[in-house]
Amino acid sequence: MTAIALTVAGSDSAGGAGIQADLKTFAALGVHGASALTALTAQNTRGVEGVHVVPPDFVLAQMKAVARDLKVGAIKIGMLATSGVIAAVAEGLNDFPGIPVVLDPVMVAASGDVLLDKDAIATLKSLLMPRAVVITPNLPEAAQLLGTSEAATESEMRAQARELMALGANAVLIKGGHAKGKTATDLLLDSEGELRLEALRVNTKHDHGTGCTLSSATAAELAKGASLREAVTTAKAYVTAAIAAADELHIGTGRGPVHHFHKWWSKPAKT
Fold first, then answer.
1. What is the CATH number of the domain that holds 59?
2. Domain count, the chain
3. Residue closest to 7 by CA, chosen among 269, 18, 129
4. What is the pTM of this model?
5. pLDDT tens-digit map of 122-167
6. What end-to-end distance do the CA atoms of the chain give, in Å?
7. In which order are the strands placed within the sheet that holds 32-44?
8. Is the dihedral of CA 35, 38, 42, 48 positive or negative?
9. Alpha-carbon distance 6 to 19, whole Å?
10. What is the phi-psi region of residue 135: left when phi exceeds 0, alpha when psi lies from -120 to 50, beta otherwise?
């Protein structure tokens, strides 16, 4: 049986994040990717120039069409933009009973552009957060979900993850990529306790799409039958390698994407 994962997220016209990053990640990890677009963005490596939100009823129609025909093994949810889209996605999940959901609460692009209406945060927390097997906020996103300041230490990350679980999250993978230091440390808090995921920080500016890639890699592994802890461990290793290889690509003049196909593309010849 071919493993299938569904991504419900926005499009990145430059191909570095969003739906495009999700589908590349699925493919790299041996999973067929299906998609339901929630928004179209006009963006490049320098920033977001425009956002067109897909009507909620058509977001729901995409999800229902996939559910009628494909045996989806996991769902990744990314950019949702508005409360209306969130409600449509929540309804669409009813057609995927028992399927694990990875919720990446995309709120602000790396460029600083807002990707989720502020009045939609409460809707996200009430309708989707309790239905996900794990949510994957970075430090700014965790702070916005809680209405507090960003965690500055691992103990503060841990405390914020616990607060999110108290609000209804089943498990929280809080990502430390925005923190300082020689290592990038993520913390998974779940019903078993805590799992610490650490990797050396890569010195590159080309890290566009890291959050999308980590969450979709987690979904891909869940679709193949991995446990949550196995899935996040594999996802962390994959995204770390994709960041480490990012400088092999030469895409755009701003923050380029990570290298999703670093295992298969030939390295450029040295001159």
1. 3.40.1190.20
2. 1
3. 18
4. 0.95
5. 999 999 999 999 999 999 999 999 999 999 999 999 999 999 999 9
6. 45
7. 47-53, 32-44, 4-12, 74-77, 101-103, 134-135, 172-174, 183-190, 193-200
8. negative
9. 10
10. beta
